[in-house]
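Re-run with default settings, no changes from the original entry. Doing this only to confirm the output is reproducible before filing.
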Amino acid sequence: MKPRCKQTAICACILTLAVGFSLGPEASAGSPDDISVERLNRLPSVERQSAFGFVIRELATAISPHPNSAVGSLGLYEFELGFDNRLGFINAGPVLGNGSDPWAAMTEGGDPSKVQWLPAIRLRKGLPFSFEVGADIGWHSGTSQMTVGGYGKLAFLDGWRRAPDAAIQLRYTGYVGNDELELGVFETDLSVGYTFLAPGISSHPDMFFSPFVGYGFLMAHARPLASSVAAVGPVSAWSDEAETSIDPRMFRIHRLFGGIEVGGNRLQFRFSGDVNVMRSGPASTSLQVGMAIRY
């Protein structure tokens, strides 16, 4: 990449980050989209736990991003700074059997956006033996909440041109900044992809495109911090943490994802999506669009 192009790409990334985060928590304090456990007091007590569980499952799929870069790991001396936009499509409306609307019951304004936008800054670093680690911080747009996450990844057959790349990734994402809710998501991802070199499409011999597909298994846990709400207890995908009246399988979510990364030696663009299937309730979907600068 020419120096001028590289500087332009970096400036564009910084400008996009500045615009996104300048509209962040401070500007959106008290937003109608803020999650509020206290509002469950408006529902009959027998409906509160199911509404709480429904929102937790869908919020978990929205805040936990699937892998959206080429399956192969970064090299030992490589480092990457990226900016991603995740769009989670929630099932707002009367979706439960009793006719209640969980999202309306748990958002301050009572009229939640059906598209949850989560912009995030992501860092990745390559390690020896095809290991990779990363971290990110994001904002749940229209709310006062942030997301903080990290992952570790191991790639198999990394860089072997005669076979697809495969990788396993372990990730945890926490939802922070809400004094009424504690939420976290642990995700295990298995992905397969292949990188095709495309030297003929431009004057840069290092251009490539890398499609990938994968399966993810999400395990969510959450605890209401609002002490004045009765008949609502903590939920967890782990059997030893869940209350006896709550099925932990409800918070184990299956995910299918796929996408493509296109770019060169320094600048990459990513487009991907996922479908999330839960034990009870409708499926949810998300899209991710991002860019990254690699050093």
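Residues 137 and 148 are 5 Å apart (CA to CA). The first helix runs from residue 3 to 22.
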